[in-house]
Every structure is written in C-alpha cells, then in structure tokens.
Design brief:
Rossmann fold; about 325 residues; Quinone Oxidoreductase, Chain A, domain 1; 14 helices; seven-stranded mixed beta sheet; globular; 2 domains; alpha/beta; binds zinc ion
Length: about 325
Amino acid sequence: MKAAVVDNNKFIISIKPKPMLDEYGTGAIVKVLGCGLCGSDIVKLQTGIAKDGDVLGHEVVGEIVEINSNTNFEVGDKIALGHHVPCFNCQYCWSEHYSMCRHFKETNIIPGGFAEYIYVSEEHLHNTVFEVNLNLTDVEASFLEPLACCIRAVRRAGIRDNTKSLIVGLGSIGILMGQTIKAFGNQVYGCDLLYERVCLSENFGFDKSFHIKDEDSALVEMQKFTKIGFDNIFLTAGASRCTNFVVKAARDGANIVVFSSVKSDAGFKNNDIYYRELNIMGSYSPSPMDLEDSMRMIEDGSVKVNGISTIYPIEGINDALADTLSNKIMKAYIKL
Ligand SMILES: [Zn+2]
Ligand SMILES: [Zn+2]
C-alpha cells in the first residue's frame, strides 16, 4: 500500500506492507479516506522525534473494510477516531490525567494515518472510534481529535461565568479553542500577528480579535476591553516570546493554559507565578469522553469546522507541510 513515510525531516511516498487483521486477531482494518496534518506531526518531523521510516498522522477518517470485534461496528462503517486509549485504572486515569496514562502513550493506530490502510485495535474500537454521521463531510469528521484536544484544554481551565478569555495564536487550534469557549457560553477574544487570521476569527464568532503589530500597543488596545487583564489565556502559538506576552495580558490570578511547544527553553518565570498567583497548566491530547463531546459538537454545529482545511493529495504532502509552515494555509487535510 501507499504511505507517506518520514525521511530526513520530510515525507517520501513509498510502498509499505498493508496491515493484516490475521496478525492481530481482533480489531479492524480501516481504509483511510483522509487524515489531517497536525501541528504535533510537524514538531515530530522537525525535531527528529519521528524516525526515518515512521508513518505519522492521527486525525483519521476512514471506512472499516475488515473487522473481528464484539462492538457494533461493521464493514462499510465510516469512522473517525482518536489514536490513544487510556487504561482507566491507574493513578493518572483516577486523577483524570488520561493523556498521562502510560497505556495511553503506548497505544496507537498502525502504522499511522498517512497510509492507505491502518490497523485499529479492539480497545480503540471500544473507546476512541466513532461512527461518522452521513451528513458530515470527510474533512469535517477529521476534526474529531483536534477539537477534542481543545475541549479538554477549555475544561482544564475551569472557566467561570462572566469571565474573559484570550486565545494567543489564531491558527486552526486557536479558532477551534475560541469556538469551544463560545459554545460553553463564555466571552472569547483572540490575537495574532497575521491580520487575515484576526478577521477570520471574528467570522468564527470571536467577540473581538486584536492584530498584534507590536506587543505594547496590542496590550493597550486590549486594556480597553478588560481593564485588569484576561481571566483565562490559551497559548496556542509556538513562538518562545509568546510566554512573556501571555503573562502581560493576564490579570493577576489568571488561568493560563499552555497548548503549544516552544523551541527554546523559554518559559514562565517563578516570581510571576508566585507574586501574581498565576495558575499555569498544560493540556495535552484528549480523553475518550472529550472525543465523544467533540463528535457531538461537530454534528450539532456548535463548533464550525468548515473553511479551516485545505485538501492535498497524499503525493502533495510535502507541499502541505511547506504551505502550513509558511502560513499560506491554516491546516492541511491529506486525502488518500
Ligand atoms: Zn492532532
Ligand atoms: Zn491509566
């Protein structure tokens, strides 16, 4: 089968053996229809976390072509999925840090979503695989996992009523995060260096977004809307200097959710956290419950996922990568 394989910090299209259900006994073989290119795939590719020969991709939409399972799934079902399954029975799971569960980190789809076929285990079928409503397009369904990540982040922040949240970075994740906050009934503001993204976020229902030409004037502009700073801030941009900006835009006692990795060891400062009682928390990957909510919110339209992705054929995956990195597009969907 055809697959986009990691090779020297890029992709090459090569032929890999198709996964066989016989090898595993239970589970399903899924024909991949398409798969979103996630920011985390790009980080893995660029930092060398992904090794040559690996197949990345996890925001999969596909069709079950072979199955041996005691779930209700059947051959022909169109599905979307999450790729990690928690054990529900460890110290991490009991404290609802499902994505820290060691079993969660070990489980995956095989070989990865940028391939014509994947193997999905019985455990995945029970917990992280969802049938796609036929009213949805493949691209819409591919937002199951990224939106679920945002739902988890918004929950982690514990947003109170009548508070103001700021999204720093209005890429695809920022847009989804802001819509999630709106769907939960709270005010949301955004900011970005790119003017088009500022405008786009307002089309997606943000109360107001700020174009950052320089940080100081952006902070002054923000102060007109919130005198003492934002109650909740979601950092979705990956530039190291964003951490400083976030601390300046926050009110004392704010919740700051970190949802991006930065290249250098830049970070939040001890004394800001201490004297200003800042609550700084990370949010990483979704639980099966977040996936379930995500599917429902895509289906009922409380979060709009149209107009975010650009479609590329698998042969064009390196163009998709380059166009994402140069901000020419918001997000790529790779069609198999
Ligand atoms: Zn993802
Ligand atoms: Zn666990």
